[in-house]
């Protein structure tokens, strides 16, 4: 069941990744995550073109993009104990430095659908989880807009149902423009 969910999810990303886009407008990322609860993870995702919107001027004029991703989390103590998750989240980003290799701060609150409601000693109760994140992203290559991003991400059902142990991850991503 888990493998078929992952296969269907990956196949559903193909149209997004192969759709013709303007140069450097969208991006993909791959990453790794670690949790103090002895969980590790992997992520692959797609982000739409980031745009400025006048209605966000009150927040310091960040850019807004939308991101979809597939995650796999694994119990480090029992490699058969896994969760697969599909996420969708709006991402706001503020450029912190004016240079050819700028630094950005990013934040987002979105939704996630998980295929199991427990991993290790963590009980999540519902298959729907909120995905809250904050991170720093550095554009290390001025010519290609490629970036490295480090993030803290929290998954929780916001006490919709108990128990709500939640999951916390520290992640690193390699971000490549399409």
TrEMBL record:
GO MF term set: acyloxyacyl hydrolase activity
Subcellular location: Cell outer membrane
Active site: 154 (charge relay system), 156 (charge relay system), 168 (charge relay system)
Catalytic activity: a 3-(acyloxy)acyl derivative of bacterial toxin + H2O = a 3-hydroxyacyl derivative of bacterial toxin + a fatty acid + H(+)
Keyword Membrane: yes
EC number(s) from the headed UniProt entry: 3.1.1.77
Main location: membrane
A GO CC term attached to the entry: cell outer membrane
Site keyed Critical for activity: positions: 157
Key word Signal present: yes
Transmembrane segments: none
Topological type in the membrane: Multi-pass membrane protein
Record keywords, A-Z: Cell outer membrane, Hydrolase, Membrane, Signal
Signal peptide: 1-25
Function as written in the Swiss-Prot or TrEMBL entry: Has lipid A 3-O-deacylase activity. Hydrolyzes the ester bond at the 3 position of lipid A, a bioactive component of lipopolysaccharide (LPS), thereby releasing the primary fatty acyl moiety.
Assembly notes: Homodimer.
Protein name according to UniProt: Lipid A deacylase
Protein source organism: Idiomarina aquatica
